Amino acid sequence: MAQHERLVVIGAGPAGYTAALYASRASLSPLVFEGLQPGGQLTITTDVDNYPGFPAGILGPELMEKMRRQAERFGTRFVLGEITRVDLSRRPFQLWQDDQLFTADAVIVATGASAKWLGIASEQAYRGKGVSACATCDGFFFRGVELAVVGGGDTAVEEATFLTKFATKVTIVHRRGELRASKIMQDRARANPKIEYAWNSVVDEVLGDGKTVTGLKLRSTTDGATRVLPVSGLFMGIGHEPNTAVFKGQLEMNEVGYLKTRAPSSATSVKGVFAAGDVADPSYRQAVSAAGSGCVAAIDAERFLGEHATENWD
């Protein structure tokens, strides 16, 4: 038998928790599906120094736990696990967690976006110890050292350019002999004296002393030769992937998979379904902007539920 809810929030990063906080304070008693990584990407982030209200900084997992407890204080309920299937073509909406069916009058999608990684063991070992997927978040900690960014598109160039504010040199490691970035981004990189290039190269291994990154083992894509590039940090510039697979064919997305919203609202292409956070934000992907959009989505959902009787939503 299906469990019915007025409002379901799918995802539990800054957007999901903030949406739940606002919705619970509006007496909607939201049910939050936290996914397999409650707290989202901030749970694998160490020091967070750019979230307002914490002048001494705060650990990512601690910030997420505080957000969760705050939402819970006002009546938010949580389910550990993912929504594995949805049917947004009927009302109430149908959502499945494996074989368990839930129905909802309104849904907020806050499933986030995942950084693309190289997929090598040493990269995993040095995450948070010199390997990062967010220059805006972590660049400040790399003052006066040499860094590398892997990638060749706009994301890589943008990350590299930002990092030159702190680093003495930034090397863009790219598997091809020329960038794929837009002309304006390439021109910007060429004009920056701190940016250098490791062309036709891939990262075979992240080197370190167990505590921090000391270099990269690069392999040539042309002749297979290897060399060591001494750096103190490696940043991913190969993009992000929005976690929207379960909504494909049901919600309107851009060509990459980010959900489209009816700005300035959080409304998606399906009435009664709203999107918040990185899942609908290919540009900024910051904790504070995600939290702000969670607030917007909750207010939009509250207004929607107040204006539409469930038997006459059209």
Automatic annotation (TrEMBL):
Binds 1 FAD per subunit. Its cofactor is FAD. Belongs to the class-II pyridine nucleotide-disulfide oxidoreductase family. It holds the Pfam family Pyr_redox_2. One of its GO terms (molecular function) is thioredoxin-disulfide reductase (NADPH) activity. It comes from Anaeromyxobacter diazotrophicus. It catalyses: [thioredoxin]-dithiol + NADP(+) = [thioredoxin]-disulfide + NADPH + H(+). GO terms for biological process: removal of superoxide radicals. Its EC number is 1.8.1.9. The keyword Oxidoreductase applies. Residues 6-294 form the FAD/NAD(P)-binding domain. It is an enzyme of class 1 (oxidoreductase). Keywords: Disulfide bond, FAD, Flavoprotein, NADP, Oxidoreductase, Redox-active center. GO terms for cellular component: cytoplasm. Homodimer. This is Thioredoxin reductase.
